[in-house]
Amino acid sequence: MALPPASVEPVIAEVEMNAGADQGATTVRATVVQASSVFYDTPATLDKAEKLIAEAAGYGSQLVLFPEVFVGGYPHGSTFGLTIGSRSAKGKEDFRKYHAAAIDVPGPEVSRLAALAGKYKVFLVIGVVERAGYTLYNTVLSFDSLGKYLGKHRKLMPTALERVFWGFGDGSTIPVYDTPLGKIGAVICWENRMPLIRAAMYAKGVEIYCAPTADALPSWQSSMTHIALEGGCFVLTANQFCLRKDFPPPPEYTFGGHEEEPSPETAVCPGGSSIISPSGTVLAGPNYEGEALLTADLDLGEIVRAKFDFDVVGHYARPEVLSLTVKTEPKHAVSFTSTVG
């Protein structure tokens, strides 16, 4: 049963809720946002984010997760004018506009997101396109309920053509935050298929595993369920629900990979957001119907019960046979040293 928002105009309906959690145990109410960016319009996207955060807070949510690159947008269908050996003038202009919609970290948009987390008293995890000079990164930012910016995770390995317009993260930005709600971390989209980064997250004790994504395939749910079981953790996955009309019209923005231009009402990303427990039980979603808030109560006692069966970096580990080394120092293209006489 949904809790009514307090003096908040609903933006999109809450669609599911797990009312069967053990209320005698410590619980966390979490909301996954499934919604589209306002493409090329970062101020409008932040305004939309505030409405969604306010609505989730009205349901009593303590943790709110947004999709991959919600701020800045996921460029579905765009090729940025790339073919082997050449780039088109329009593709370069498309990148200029995409670069302009990205945000600096730190920067004014980060300050606003921090203020929103504090205003609505939620732990906020949100995907952004981070601008670092002239290179862009697929990044997740985290904020606590007091309005403090905690840090970021940059996607280690962009997928396929993403490698053209996003740089690569390194081991210095794979944090897990120890919060009053539990230990929270984020892994982005197909990074979740990388066993070694999952092992690093488990070793850091992640309890609420956030997986913002752009993958709406049915197979994604299998990956999320496997991670919940493997890690003995709650998995929250958030994807955008985007229609063609959520992007600029042609010829300003065109979709590659289609035999013909999609109609305005075509779903170019149909969502699939969900919340899964450490036992593999689906608590909310997956939703493929439209923009939505998916909310569930997370019984944190279930983590301990799951670890009794299988603790992947604890009693089930075999470090004398298999081990992982994570290099956490930042990587720089240029380093400067000086010798003082």
What does this structure look like?
With 341 residues, the chain is an alpha/beta fold. It has a single domain (27-309), classed as Nitrilase/N-carbamoyl-D-aminoacid amidohydrolase, CATH 3.60.110.10. 23% of the residues lie in helices and 25% in strands. The chain is built from 7 helices and 17 strands. The protein has helices spanning 42-58, 89-101, 108-120, 162-165, 195-203, 218-231, 301-309, and strands at residues 14-16, 27-34, 63-65, 82-83, 86-87, 123-132, 135-143, 149-154, 176-179, 182-186, 208-210, 234-237, 241-243, 267-270, 273-276, 282-287, 292-299. Strands 1-17-2-3-6-7-8 form a 7-stranded mixed sheet. A hairpin with a 2-residue loop joins strand 4 and strand 5. Helix 1 runs parallel beside helix 3. The radius of gyration is 20 Å and the shape is globular. Residues 28-300 form the CN hydrolase domain. Pfam families: CN_hydrolase (PF00795). It catalyses: 3-cyano-L-alanine + 2 H2O = L-aspartate + NH4(+). Belongs to the carbon-nitrogen hydrolase superfamily. Nitrilase family. Keywords: Hydrolase.
Number of extended strands: 17
Uncertain runs? 1-24
Number of helices: 7
Strand order of the largest sheet: 1-17-2-3-6-7-8
What is the CATH-assigned architecture? 4-Layer Sandwich
CATH fold name: Nitrilase/N-carbamoyl-D-aminoacid amidohydrolase
Radius of gyration from CA coordinates: 20 Å
How many structural units, i.e. domains? 1
Q: How much helicity do the residues have?
A: 10-25%
Structural class by sheet pairing and helices: alpha/beta
Shape: globular
CATH class category: Alpha Beta
Largest sheet: 7 strands, mixed
Mean pLDDT, all residues: 90
Provide the β-strand percentage band: 15-25%
